[in-house]
Specification:
Helix content is about 45%, strand content about 25%. It is of the alpha/beta class. The protein folds into 4 domains: about 130 residues, 3-Layer(aba) Sandwich (Rossmann fold), CATH 3.40.50.2300; about 120 residues, PAS domain (Beta-Lactamase), CATH 3.30.450.20; about 160 residues, 2-Layer Sandwich (Alpha-Beta Plaits); about 240 residues, TIM Barrel, CATH 3.20.20. The longest helix is centred in the N-terminal third of the chain and has 35 residues. The radius of gyration is 36 Å and the shape is elongated. The N and C termini lie far apart (about 75 Å).
């Protein structure tokens, strides 16, 4: 559907600029682009731009300067920052400015479109509210001249506080006949909570004061079922002659009374309440938002400083929420956030403040605690509560939560430092396996900076092709033939040298970079295998490791099919290696995806078999072809020991289930002899060759080192 709003896309990278333009145009928006900040200012002056997607880090005229330009020129343009900048302080600075929201690169298209739609809806609501306020203002000016036919309540009160006159408007607004009010005391009409304010304008003492008075009051409806209505009360003291005719000057026996107008402002109050709620609350969960949380945290810090007591700030992040959003869609994701927020609130003490900080992140303020133990109790309660599944439209969804905790005053004496340090502690627990809590300590700062630096370098590495594949052979020890190669990713860092995947894969999974990295590995490995086929090298498979985010992504099967087709490969040429824990995270989805891979002919191998915590029943449910004996078990094979019982059990199990078997981490002759003697004939490890670049691997294929020699056997 075509939209009327005009969107300006600003980036200094032509490819990113084109990607954003295509995304927005494809969603029906009118789009103009600017290559860099300087061109953006020109576009802003040439067009009435409703919304701007703005990069921060641009040479010359950067994103911050563009936002300053918008503010200086008082341009009515909503700004969403789309940037690869990951520094917490930079993001905080942006969100404190005029920016509506901050989207990290690489962005998720659905998240970006969702944010754009929310921003434009908020903008539209603001315009509508402004229209309402303008209309009320015009109405107020007109009503001053239309006393007798006024839409306001016009009234007179004597010096005893009783009504002596009221116009017909009272019946329409509050349900009273005007005759009922004549002689009634004002206290019978005013809402009880506003009685003190009412006496300020209606009492005899107020009438004796000749200065006009204004106040906002609530009047009760006649039937009592409807809620009180808000009125803006304007009063002018007057002098009443004995014959009850009003005069502004005394010319005989007179009484002092009140003349006034009560203007119904209920709609305005509702609009103000709505605007105020939207300004300080998250509309999805109805929780306080970032702004309100920071206000309360600043107040709590000031109170804690005066009273000398401790307080705790928690940063909570849902684990696997992005996976739910990507696989089930935003409707499920939004409902899940609502259910989670309700569960979190059930875990709080009176006086605690839970806020949605953004996305799947929440913050919790515990304004007064005796010790860390108080925060520990709440954190454990939250973690335990979220272990229970959430049911949405009959489907059970499991999520867990990681909690970082900062204590005042030891972990920070300001709002920013407490939130930042709680965030650092939360990321620390994510790096240790998630679904737990962690108190902040100063040593985490260095680790966090290293992690942020690694994440930043990884994003650059994907763009500049710093990743390479090495290949480790899998050998049939009976024939000495190479039957497969496992593709293993390495990072050739420009300053740190070759980095092992153990140092960066966890960061890639946590930040979502595992998806583009995994796609690159799949495409590169299949391209290499295709080249080998063209060189006449056949009968060798390519094994690729998968992460949970890859296999659970909704487009994964389509991607595998596309890559195989592009490289003229059959599914039988490919083997996907997955871990037991990956399967058990979402058994139902895993079975579905692995069945689809099996239909393509792709072989499935269980990597690190025996190290997970799972039921063996899944071996019969899933289309598994191969079990890989973990290297930790192979290392237990010793000449003078009897510690290989697990290896023996796995070999017997694979034989009984008629599954292929590969032993990993084979490093010496005795291990080769023992495994072959027990019936495991395919092996992989340093004994046969370390992971090597493509050129060296091709040399192994063309001149197999074990094909013409007899591998060691038990004597």
């Amino acid at each position: 559907m075509q939209r009327n709003e005009l969107v300006l896309v600003v980036d200094d990278q032509p490819r990113m600029l084109q990607s954003l333009q295509d995304l927005m145009v494809g969603s029906g928006y009118n789009v103009i682009t600017a290559l860099g900040g300087q061109q953006a200012t020109e576009r802003l002056l040439e067009h009435d731009v409703d919304l701007m997607l703005l990069d921060l880090k641009m040479p010359g005229f950067n994103g911050h300067q563009v936002m300053d330009f918008v503010e200086e020129r008082e341009l009515n343009t909503t700004v969403i920052v789309v940037s690869g900048e990951t520094c917490f302080d930079a993001m905080s600075q942006v969100l404190k400015s005029r920016a509506y929201d901050y989207i990290r690169k690489p962005y998720v298209p659905e998240d970006l479109l969702h944010t754009v739609e929310n921003a434009l809806n908020a903008r539209q609501l603001e315009c509508q509210n402004q229209v309402i306020n303008d209309r009320l203002a015009r109405s107020e000016k007109l009503h001053r001249y239309l006393v007798n036919s006024s839409p306001d309540i016009v009234y007179m009160i004597d010096n005893k506080g009783c009504f002596t006159f009221v116009n017909d408007r009272i019946a329409e607004l509050l349900g009273y006949d005007k005759e009922e009010l004549i002689g009634m005391h004002y206290r019978d009409l005013v809402f009880i909570a506003d009685a003190e304010q009412a006496s300020y304008v209606f009492s005899p003492r107020a009438a004796a004061d000749t200065s006009p008075r204004n106040v906002e009051l609530r009047f009760k409806s006649r039937d009592g079922d409807r809620p009180p209505r808000f009125f803006e009360i304007k009063t002018i003291p007057i002098e009443l002659q004995a014959d009850d005719e009003a005069e502004t000057e005394s010319d005989g026996a007179t009484e002092v009374g009140i003349y006034g107008v009560a203007r119904d402002i209920s709609d305005r109050k509702e609009a103000e309440r709505t605007i105020n709620f939207q300004a300080y609350h998250d509309l999805l969960t109805r929780l306080p938002n970032r702004a309100l949380f920071k206000d309360r945290l600043n107040l709590a810090v000031a109170q804690a400083k005066r009273a000398g007591h401790q307080m705790a700030v928690m940063f909570l992040d849902l684990d696997r929420f992005k996976l739910v959003n990507d696989t089930l869609g935003h409707i499920y994701g939004d409902e899940l956030l609502q259910l989670v927020s309700q569960s979190l609130q059930d875990c709080l003490r009176d006086g605690d403040t839970l806020a949605r900080f953004g996305g799947d992140e929440f913050t919790l303020l515990m304004p007064e605690v005796d010790s860390k133990d108080d925060a520990t109790v709440v954190a454990k309660k939250i973690i335990e509560r979220l272990r229970q599944p959430f049911t949405i439209e009959g489907q059970e969804i499991y999520v867990t939560i990681s909690v970082g905790i900062a204590m005042y005053p030891q972990d920070g004496s300001s709002m920013d430092s407490l939130v930042k340090n709680a965030d650092i502690a939360m990321y620390h627990i994510k790096g240790r396996g998630k679904n737990d809590y962690q108190f902040y300590c100063r040593e985490m700062n260095e680790a966090t900076m290293q992690r942020l630096s690694l994440e930043r370098d990884m994003r650059k590495a994907l763009e500049s092709e710093q990743f390479v594949l090495h290949f480790q052979p899998q050998i049939d020890v009976i024939s000495g033939r190479i039957v497969a190669f496992e593709a293993l990713v390495r990072w050739q860092h420009p300053s740190l040298g070759m980095i092992s995947p153990t140092d960066f894969i966890s960061v890639a999974e946590e930040t979502g970079l595992i998806l583009p990295l995994g796609e690159w590995v799949l495409r590169k490995a299949c391209s290499v295998l295709s080249n080998w086929r063209e060189q006449g090298i056949h009968d060798v498979r390519m094994a690729i490791n998968l992460s949970s985010m890859q296999i659970e992504h909704k487009n994964f099967i389509g991607l595998v099919h596309e890559v195989l087709r592009e490289n003229h490969l059959s599914g039988h040429d490919l083997e996907m290696e997955i871990t037991e824990n990956l399967i058990m995270q979402d058994m139902e989805n895993s079975i579905k995806k692995l069945m689809q891979l099996n239909e393509l002919g792709v072989q499935i191998a269980i990597d690190d078999f025996g190290t997970g915590y799972s039921s063996l029943s899944y071996l019969q449910k899933l289309p598994i072809h191969t079990l890989k004996i973990d290297r930790s078990f192979v290392n237990e094979i010793e000449k003078d020991g009897d510690d290989a019982c697990i290896v023996d059990a796995v070999i017997a199990m694979a034989s009984g289930l008629r599954l292929n078997l590969i032993a990993e981490g084979v490093e010496d002759e005795y291990q080769v002899e023992y495994l072959r003697d027990k019936g495991c004939c395919e092996m992989q490890g340093f004994y046969f060759g370390k992971p090597a670049p493509e050129k060296e691997s091709v040399a192994l294929l063309l001149n197999p080192p074990f094909a013409d020699q007899r591998l060691p056997s038990v004597g």
